[in-house]
Amino acid sequence: MKTPTQYITLLCSLFLLCSCATFPKTEVLANHVALSPENLSAINGTYITDSTAIKHQNEILWGKSSVVTAETYKTFTENPVYATLKVVDSKTINVQIHTQNQTLKTYQIKGKIKNGYFVQRPKFYAIPAIFINAWYSGRFRLGLLENQNVSTQYATKDFGTVYFAYPYNNSETPNAIEHLRVGK
After folding, report:
1. Single pTM value for the model
2. Which terminal CB of the chain, N or C, has fewer other CB atoms within 10 Å?
């Protein structure tokens, strides 16, 4: 007979495998241009971030999982924030987040083209602790619109418990944010 620990381990493993963040089958926007390895370089350029539509810090940083300090968040809310995208190859995009006079973050988004979008590799973590148990899974996708703007979506599944008594679920369905092109 198996011990309870083995059952719990098996149950947790199955639970984690079945709970990754995914993009629901949404209708394709009328002005969406399907991305392919041949036309991926069409997203090269500088875009202004719509700070009023942003809900998650990963939407601010275009898919980058990173802690946003209070000082950086203040910069995002007070100044226009730009993202400069440069395609390296069909699986890598360089991103520079900046204001008019200050670079805030530079990094790479690694992923693949799927269903006409550039989809970032899934990001996830699990914290199995006595007092706080947490599971987080997130995906970021980038699409091109006919007017040469880009749309971004960030899907998350985030749930857990605190002191075994207060479960929480911060999972949200993704909303598309359109970023206006301001330069090449």
Report:
1. 0.73
2. N
